[in-house]
Amino acid sequence: MQPLRVLIIFAHPRFEDSRTHQALIAAVKGLDAITIHDLYELYPDFNINVEREKEALLAHDIIIWQHPLYWYNCPPLLKQWIDMVLEFGWAYGPGGLALEGKYFMQAVSSGGSREVYATEGRNRFSLNTFLAPFNQTVHLCKAHYLPPFAVQGTHRLEAAAIADFAQTFATLLIKLQKEVPLVELKAFEQLNDWMTTFSNDIR
Amino acid sequence: MSGGFLIQAIVFLTAAVICVPLAKRIGMSSVLGYLIAGILIGPYLLGFIGTEGEDIMHFAEFGVVMMLFLIGLELDPARFWRMRRLVLGMGLSQLLLTTCFVFFLFYVIGIGLNTSLALGLAFSLSSTAIVLQTMKEKNLLHTSGGQSAFSTLLFQDIAVIPILAFLPMLATSTNQLAANNHQLLPTNTPAWLHTLVVLAAIALVILVGRYLAVPLLRQIAKTRLRELFTASALLLVVSIALLMQLVGLSPALGTFLAGVVLANSEYRHELESDLEPFKGLLLGLFFLSVGAAIDLGLIGTQPANFLFLLFSLLGIKLLVLWSVGKMFKLRNDQNLLYTLSMSQIGEFAFVILAFMAQLNLLDKNGFSMGMALTAMSMTITPVLLLINDKWLSKRMNRVLPEEKAVSEIDEKHPVIIAGFGHFGSTLGRFLRANGVQAVYLDHDSEQVALLRKLGFNVFYGDASRLDLLEAAGAKSARILISALDNPAANQQLVETVHKHFPHLQLLVRAKNRYDAYELMDMGVESIYRESLDTSVRLGVDVLTMLGHRAYSAKRSGQNFIRYDEEAMHELHANRHDTKQYLSRARQQIEMQEKLLQAERFDKTATGDHAWDSEPMRKAARGNTNPPPDKSAQA
Predict the structure, then answer these.
(1) How far apart are CA B71 and CA B161, in angstroms?
(2) How far apart (Å, rounded) are the C-alpha atoms in residues B493 and B464?
(3) Residue of B nearest to A152 (CA)
(4) How many CB atoms lie within 10 A of CB B243?
(5) Which of B550, B552, B632 sits opposite A112 (nearest CB)?
(6) Could A111 and B628 be called an inter-chain contact, meaning their C-beta atoms sit closer than 8 Å?
(7) What is the pLDDT of residues B129-139, one digit of tens each?
(8) Which percentage of chain B shows pLDDT scores above 90?
(9) ipTM summary value
(10) Going by CATH, does the domain composed of B4-390 fall within 1.20.1530.20?
(11) How many CB atoms lie within 10 A of CB B591?
(12) Architecture of domain A6-202
């Protein structure tokens, strides 16, 4: 069976200084049937080529928004991408069925750890609560929103830990390319958790 | 007056320093300035110099020789070949026809055959200095009228050589002796031997130019002594001139030839720039002495004669030029520009007349008359061009207001763009693509006609003229864009607008930083340096190609432009305090350097640490409680 095609919409305004995302990208770059759109490299003037992005969306099955979390949100160019590419009448609204049945997932990094992103933590809300607008956006486009893959507490991560995360990310994508067990995945808060259930097989 | 060399030098230089800027100021060429200065200090007015003026003239003729060397240097054979049809066709027909008519005119009024012919040749030429200068100032060189003028002038410049060589043949044999008294060969040399010597000399010049001069110049350039290079360039020209004189040829011919031979060498530009000041000075001196030699009293005693000749000559020249223009299918307005701008008698006439006097082809009266006619015809040119401009702008701009009611145009066109060159047209296309219809002003009648055809609202004329601005609707417009190529013209426009249309928002194109300073002095706020954005954009692409992230390179470019504009405003404020300016300039450069380096290397030192997580990492490692406001960042 052909692997599902993955499109990574990657947004990082300062990629050259990001340890986490450099590792994540390096781990998945060049894998079979994976395309990466590096938004800040493609559109430094924020002038997004909407047609090209739409064509790319149509040509892929799994779309991953990969970005750091800045002020509990995505970097501005990704928001610009969402605003411009997900057109009314194409992605949503009457006749907007282009993305129907596709899978969307976020791969995010945050400086604060998972514990901090909790009702009793300093950030008061869970990561998934902050990501609710993305979830709803995908829902409105009649696509499936998967739980996020998250690298958290990046400020304190050692290089080895980051490498671990990158390896897990690559394994996750390869797994999803084979099959997306939607009901099973929805039971997890983060896809990191799903991956831990296989940790024994991998190691 | 025989106060020695220094006093003479003072007289000449003072006259030049006073008269030339004055002539320039009222729109005449520097040639006229020198002439007027010469007349002033000459024996007929102030009498500072007397007969020694003629000796000086002989000396200063060397300026002409040098000018021909430089013309030869500039004669790019490839360019000449490309324009051969225009150069040969227009140039030859203009020269021959004018010479014929002028010859006929003088012959009919009873002047000798040979002299009439020589006068015909002298007066057929136009002034390269005046025409090219005027065209350049008005940015008209690229129009078909300008190109035609350029071609004709090129031909004339080349034709001077054979004319100068030809003149001695017109003189009677006794005169020839007087003219070439430095000749190597005795006068009784047989003709074949003489021809052989001449040919050998020419061959020598070509051989030396091709095989000896360039290696020699290369060796001298290696010494890196600039004055040595200048000295050898002078030596080259002087020795060729002497050689030519020895074999009885015109020195101008020889140096011109040497110039052409050296035109393709790598030292062309060095030679040009080294000899340019000498040429300028000597030519100035030459024109000064010519002015001093003009007999004003003579003209005063026979004004009718003078006026008759002046208008006949102008008439002949205009008629021939117009017909040549027609023959080469110039549009009427371009032909008019070509005809009127070329109507004067050129500075080479001074050379030829002086030479004729030397050869006794012309007596003192005839010489003075010829000089005065030439000078006067030069004075008339700017006046003719001014009249043409007024008339043409009236004729060309009449079309538009008839088509539409003026108020209608005004409502639709809040923007006026002065200048429709490369800058203005790009801007115009952009605005048009966004549905903004602007009114354009341009000085090129061909361009205007074309744009009219394409449906642009274009007015012909000098954009800084009040009536033109009014016709273009400056009263009701909101924005005026000054996109002229010539900084002086832009400033003039700004002045007019400030004075008469203070409500207009002015956006001005500036060539560079210094041009921008001048505009800031005038109180212009929106200044667009053409050298800024494009070069930074190119730089951003370079960074990207070298592997920098596109967005970081983009931001660095944007910052650079912002810093640069800020620095320019600060520098402008201190511009007139030179000492401070120097130190401030250094300070600014250092600031800029620091800011830019900081952007790449030492991020914490600048105000910009967007998306920089290093301090947060440090805080997180050292302190269990990182600052809460940044904790969201990764």
Answers:
(1) 11
(2) 4
(3) B634
(4) 19
(5) B632
(6) no
(7) 778 777 877 77
(8) 16
(9) 0.82
(10) yes
(11) 15
(12) 3-Layer(aba) Sandwich (3.40)
